[in-house]
Amino acid sequence: MRCFPAVDLANTLRHDGEGGVADELGTPATTVRWLRQWHELMPGGPTDVDGELHARLLGLRTAVRALFAHAVAPGPASRADPRPLMLQGEALAGLNAAATTGPVVAELDWPEEGTPTTRMRPTDTDPRMWPVAALACATIAFLGGPDRERLRACAAPRCVRYFVQGHGRQRWCKPSCGNRVRVARHHRRRQEPRTRPHGGES
Ligand SMILES: [Zn+2]
Q1: Cα of 14 to ligand 1 centre, how many Å?
Q2: In this structure, CATH architecture of domain 5-195
Q3: Pairing of strands 21-23, 104-109
Q4: pTM of the entire structure?
């Protein structure tokens, strides 16, 4: 299965199993744990998550989730966000600004007698913010590419996750969500005859 850091960032808000929402980025300590899995995106870090990095990650996630809601429209968005959502223009500006804080920027070099080449030029941005930039760049690649069209909000009750459809009719983020829906449907069907009034029975 392909992985999408942007979708994973959005899904740090998830169903807590009791009708509420759990936040994997709830504290700087849990955020360090979450960021470690993306170490390949993070040149040199992260070793620590301070208040500023934590706040920037949460800000980026808010922007990503607002853009995801826009991407899945007119289909339903995840229910985990406070309404109204961040405006699209504000979300875009936040995402694009976050992407500029990375260790390198791309430059096109094109000598008069030759072919163009891309070069990565080092920046002098704060290394602590590089993880935010890496996630923002991954989000830009995702939303700007063809996979965006397969982004969906999971249709299972209580689930608040986004996922990228693997096949045309996939409605659940993972098999366990589909199983939950099927079990609930099965129970409803078994209960219906008993709750329906029957003539002649008292
Ligand atoms: Zn789900």
Answers
A1: 9
A2: Orthogonal Bundle (1.10)
A3: unpaired
A4: 0.84
